[in-house]
């Protein structure tokens, strides 16, 4: 069985083709989906890609969270389908209340682009099982509204229940509270993060490593984890 992973394109999506390529490199079949549709075309997992949907008017991800296809995304999430929100996709997930908290303008009020070091805090989700807890990875980051916020009580709950999936290490690039770079829902099938794993899946095009320039492929494990989760559910 070939795992089919849908990538939803919204007006202003920039990284949908990159996500499709990452899925293909990981060994799954990418399926292009459209924001105005109500058909998920029988996919096994979903990616909400990065970009500036609807120009980030109102709030980043706020309008996209109301797109027609998001009704199906919510239903799929409730059924346990693996769903990954990357950058703008993460913003959509919080705006759609599939993940808690919010994302605001970077603390320094500037767009940031860097290869970012992360620590894996939760290796038991549908998108992180091919990592180990405490593992440090490097994947690209690029955002202007990447500061993760939540109430103190909500932050305590996320920490206490192990729902922080990734944490910034070395430097906090956008002022996210408690250095949170990504979170998961209680079931572990929905994950959102600000950095871009789809840009670190192929040697020659990823972050620099100690082995060679542009050789980092830490992002590949996100997509291979989802494939494993789908296969495990099918069997």
UniProtKB/TrEMBL annotation:
<keyword id="KW-0963">Cytoplasm</keyword>
<feature type="active site">
    <location>
        <position position="198"/>
    </location>
</feature>
<feature type="active site" description="Nucleophile">
    <location>
        <position position="87"/>
    </location>
</feature>
<keyword id="KW-0547">Nucleotide-binding</keyword>
<keyword id="KW-0436">Ligase</keyword>
<keyword id="KW-0315">Glutamine amidotransferase</keyword>
<dbReference type="Pfam" id="PF13507">
    <property type="entry name" value="GATase_5"/>
</dbReference>
<comment type="subunit">
    <text>Part of the FGAM synthase complex composed of 1 PurL, 1 PurQ and 2 PurS subunits.</text>
</comment>
<comment type="function">
    <text>Part of the phosphoribosylformylglycinamidine synthase complex involved in the purines biosynthetic pathway. Catalyzes the ATP-dependent conversion of formylglycinamide ribonucleotide (FGAR) and glutamine to yield formylglycinamidine ribonucleotide (FGAM) and glutamate. The FGAM synthase complex is composed of three subunits. PurQ produces an ammonia molecule by converting glutamine to glutamate. PurL transfers the ammonia molecule to FGAR to form FGAM in an ATP-dependent manner.</text>
</comment>
<feature type="active site">
    <location>
        <position position="196"/>
    </location>
</feature>
<keyword id="KW-0378">Hydrolase</keyword>
<keyword id="KW-0658">Purine biosynthesis</keyword>
<comment type="pathway">
    <text>Purine metabolism; IMP biosynthesis via de novo pathway; 5-amino-1-(5-phospho-D-ribosyl)imidazole from N(2)-formyl-N(1)-(5-phospho-D-ribosyl)glycinamide: step 1/2.</text>
</comment>
<dbReference type="InterPro" id="IPR010075">
    <property type="entry name" value="PRibForGlyAmidine_synth_PurQ"/>
</dbReference>
<protein>
    <recommendedName>
        <fullName>Phosphoribosylformylglycinamidine synthase subunit PurQ</fullName>
        <ecNumber>6.3.5.3</ecNumber>
        <ecNumber>3.5.1.2</ecNumber>
    </recommendedName>
</protein>
<dbReference type="InterPro" id="IPR029062">
    <property type="entry name" value="Class_I_gatase-like"/>
</dbReference>
<keyword id="KW-0067">ATP-binding</keyword>
